[in-house]
Amino acid sequence: MKSWRLLPRTEHLAKYIECYWFLEKEPHDQNFNFPKLYPDPSSHLIIARSNRAYEYTHGSIVQNARGSHWVFPHVNTFILDHSAPFAILGVKFKIGALYSLDINSVTSCLDKIEEVEVNCLSGTDIFDSELLLIAAEDDKHQAICKLEQLLSPWLIDNYEDKHSRLVREILPLLSHTPVNEIGDQLHLSQRTTERSFYRVTGLSMKQVQSMLRLENLLNDLYQRDESDINWGDIAYKYRFSDQSHLIRQLKSKIGSTPARYAQQRDLTIDIYGNFEIT
Hints:
Keywords: DNA-binding, Transcription, Transcription regulation. By secondary structure, this protein is α+β, with helices and mostly antiparallel strands.
């Protein structure tokens, strides 16, 4: 298995893109075949070979995509079918970025998987996902250089308004500020901040704050052995009202109680690691 993660190289791309990542599962890899993809407020553009099919399941709902596709912000946990070898190059966009890039309606995209012709985004007919994936396997810096050349014309042609600018101010506050105090912090009414945030992201501030907290918690647990986990301490550290609140939230978000999750370790972060930036 190969994996890596890199930051954008240029300022106008970094405004909308959080990072690039690559994952390859080779034929000899025998790890877990059906990992869970936990809730994420960001959109990911997945660049894949056109002959490879991908499956995302939540409950009784199954979504399929062949080749390159979008994984839009999702409040539900997907079960992925990764039983066959694959290679994918991902572009993780910042929360709310698609609003400025005019990708459909942000609210209608939630929990959706959608096939995409990357040439249509980049405005060029020379995009070759096969060559880009080969480059990603051999030389990640060369691959990102090529990818940014393709994405630049699209990302330069963007739309910014007062709502997108306000959301850019709100996002850093979500990590440490109660949602009901964010309006005061920005000298605006709470209703104004909530409406702009929902308009740009399709999610409430509380939903995004909860998903970011879950991601930080899971990153923390990834680094601990089961015997090193004190759930009372974890509940306190991540500002749950008590351990019962933590149990309910994990069961609701990833379908497992804390104890069961600590034994199974069946999320994508557990199967593929925490893609360190290199």
